Amino acid sequence: MSGVLDLARPEIVALTAYSPARWDPSLVRLHANENPWRSAADATRAGLNRYPEPQSSALASGLASLYGVDPAQVTVARGSDEGIDLLLRAFCAAGRHEIVICPPTFAMYRFAAAVQGAAVVEVPLREADGFSLDAEAVIAACSAATRLVFLCSPNNPTGNLLDPAAIERVVSALSGRAVVVVDEAYVEFSAGGSLAGLLQHLPNLAILRTLSKAFGMAGARCGAVLASGEITGLLRRILPPYAVTVQTIEAVLDALDPHRLGESRQQVARLISERDRLSMQLARLPLVTRVWPSEANFLLLRSPDAGRLLEAGIRGGLLVRDVRSQPGLGDCLRVTVGTPQQNDRLVSSLEAA
Ligand code: PMP
């Protein structure tokens, strides 16, 4: 026992897991009140008339080998959004506990905290230093009520990697005090690697991964929390037993086929070169005063008239993200890298502004 469960809600630690209908594909299922016949519209291999395997072992093993961890360290969920929600519910009691976030950052951490009734403490990234992580300020901001610290690397919407040594410093310093959640949703687009290798030594680390970005499967809703066996056991206990659908299990297992993995890596490489081309083109626009370097599949830009750029995009039939409400980004937009044609269209639409 590493003691990380002392940080979790005791009622969740003590919870008896829901016991779903036994999973044994060698036996005929007359125990789950399913329909014995398939729908004519059912194109799956397993059959949608049957419940999926609770916490599909094939999916957990496939993602474990993809991410270089043990299957017992993987919780598969409906996107990393659900991973964030599970962590909040497992570790934060409403009205008692708090999380630490480093704005500007992904809005879901704050949202999930609000749903759970957890307070949010902010330690801004250092804009003047390329939105770098202030490790000592994060450590100092953690109180006895802190349960989770969310660090996003590469960060959304700023696009930069956080220094891995600074992240490791935060995790080590908060050992026994808080779980540090590193969100690696965009890590495949970056020059840095995953911090999953640290999980062995740092039991208070949890890592979020997703199939929504580099794998092009946002519609499948599949993500994973990588963490110690203790944290994984806890999260699996509160995840609904049939969270991940048969279609998603099959689609993701197909995507993990070595040939498809190779194709996906090529797609990521193409996207990275498009990102660099788009970045140069956006930087030349008269209404764009800054484009930040990006390690993700999007670019953050600054403009003295971001509103006009937004409207020009819409006139050209394109949506870009308004991030002006985020701290420090009052004049900024976030642009997702599209196909070469879409990017060209974006540039010419914004030129027209
Ligand atoms: N983390 C970050 C940083 C994100 O930007 C997103 C999606 N916008 C997510 C997690 C959620 O991804 P999903 O739920 O699709 O896995």
Quick recap:
With 353 residues, the protein is α/β, with parallel strands linked by helices. Helices cover 35% and strands 14% of the residues. The strands form two sheets. A seven-stranded mixed beta sheet has the order 1-7-6-5-4-2-3, with helices on both faces. The chain has a four-stranded antiparallel beta sheet with strand order 8-9-11-10.
What is the typical, i.e. mean, pLDDT? 97
> How much of the sequence is in beta strands?
5-15%
Number of helices: 11
Low-confidence stretches: none
Bound compounds, each kind once, are: 4'-deoxy-4'-aminopyridoxal-5'-phosphate
Radius of gyration: 22 Å
User: How many individual β-strands?
Assistant: 11
In words, what does this structure look like?
This protein is α/β, with parallel strands linked by helices. It has 2 domains: 4-256, Type I PLP-dependent aspartate aminotransferase-like (Major domain) (Aspartate Aminotransferase, domain 2, 3-Layer(aba) Sandwich), CATH 3.40.640; 259-351, Aspartate Aminotransferase, domain 1 (Alpha-Beta Complex). Helix content is 35%, strand content 14%. The protein has a 7-stranded mixed sheet with strand order 1-7-6-5-4-2-3, with helices on both faces. The chain has a 4-stranded antiparallel sheet with strand order 8-9-11-10. Helix 10 crosses helix 11. The radius of gyration is 22 Å and the shape is globular. The mean pLDDT is 97. It binds 4'-deoxy-4'-aminopyridoxal-5'-phosphate.
